[in-house]
Amino acid sequence: MKTTRLMQLSRPHQILIHLCQRVNHGSILNLRLVDGQVSFGVPPEVVLDLKLDADLKQHPELDLGDFESRL
Question: Within a 10 A sphere around the Cβ of 38, how many other Cβ atoms?
Answer without folding.
Answer: 19
